[in-house]
Fold these 2 entries.
Entry 1:
Amino acid sequence: MKRQDTKWQAGRDVWWQDVVTNFPTKCDVEWVDAEDPLFLLYTSGSTGKPKGVMHTSGGYMVYTATTFKYAFDYKPTDIYWCTADCGWITGHSYVTYGPLLNGAAVLVFEGTPNYPDAGRCWDIVDKYKVSIFYTAPTLVRSLMRDGNEYVTRYSRKSLRVLGSVGEPINPSAWRWFYNVVGDSKCPISDTWWQTETGGFMMTPLPGAWPQKPGSATFPFFGVQPVIVDEKGQEIEGECSGYLCIKKSWPGAFRTLYGDHDRYETTYFKPFAGYYFTGDGCSRDKDGYHWLTGRVDDVINVSGHRIGTAEVESALVSHPQCAEAAVVGVEHEVKGQGIYAFVTLVDGVPYSEELRKSLISKVRTQIGAFAAPDRIHWAPGLPKTRSGKIMRRILRKIAAKQLDELGDISTLADPGVVDQLIALKDC
């Protein structure tokens, strides 16, 4: 319905200013116990039956307030902007509870960050003097794809700290975020955490230690991460394995609502005595942590276990690749093959030569065993409003199981699916 077609209807319509004055401007505090439920947030990532993650009042709020304060070096003069949708955990923890518990001035934006053009974010930053900007790697890569000119036309001089959330940020996107958006002067809080953890588990503290592009660096105060092997044995020093948490922390969720057995089975039984994050992790010789993605996003190619995030990072390091998503498909010889969906930098045409160049990039960075068997051109990737790539859909497209795509109504742009299907044989 067009705005001008909406007619005033007596008995239904009221003027806001006439009604709001009838209500009090203060709301009494409702005192609750520390372990009383605060909220339920249903999460399943890209697969699985939704899980009702339950956070409680005391520990969660203490944890989000503390992590916000230190991970962003918050000061009372800051203007803070987190681009997350309020409906997912980042919106709860770092749009609402964490900032407001610190009395922070929070900018809330409801809209598309690249409309009317890719400079929208920086226009807002300049207009409202935003000093802390927290966003997802998927937005960083999207804006990087559109070119530097949309960034450099704005001063961004108010920016002091940048942040990344949602998935591991590949080094090339990190460098662009740091060098172009932050003018090589803003530290990046590359945060790792989960819906279940309530708040940051690993994050750089601005200015506290040197950063490494793509690394979440070290654990937050009191958090004790360990890397274990398949038998649940802790591995010391430089290594790769399964990321677990050894001791409890205030922000931990208390149960899966109505299914405590699943809570124990999913998070505490895989490795007895530890909280299992479900993520893979590498630790380098300096003790820095590098998240490699979900362990169920590991592809077994001829006996080589390859993390999808590793292949995606290699693809995105190609100067003409803006974004990539990798899934496994059945392969009659290797067991599983590597199927890569690739979004190119704006204006770059599809070509067989470029396809070969992308594969060569992966061979050079990782090895021949990790070379994609198929490059599928992708004008866009199927994502939720929070920026999560729906790999379930990509797996079905890769396997040509188009009648099993399931519900795509929660995608930010369901039309992307039809575009991918149209390009499946290109």
Entry 2:
Amino acid sequence: MLRPTLLPSRLLRQQPTLTPLLRQFLSTAPSQPQKPSSSPPQSLPRQSQKTYFPFALGRSRTNNYSVYQDAKRGGNFKLTIIKKIEGNRIAFKQELAKALNLSPNDIRVNSLTGHVEVRGHHRSEIVAFLEERGL
């Protein structure tokens, strides 16, 4: 005697149908024909043109700039150290010297670490310089 076979339950279930929104998205024909407008298209507001620099500055995990103040030689020699500079560090040094009105001798690039060291405590001015340029 033959036993009736049972169909697996996955074959008995119906396949879900596509929702109207998904069906509209997947179709190639446009759902609504676009009417030609009699008024000219309005122009979008111009965004300020962003100037591009040959350098970029990375940020810390807390989304802050990596600008630190340090004191050496018993506290008499004050430094501001800028870390995480990518790109042309010499161009960054020149822009920074121009913006802070410092002589090029007051700013130096450490070739081993890639940090830029500025004589004196100038953290607030440097952060303002970086925010102004959107780096």
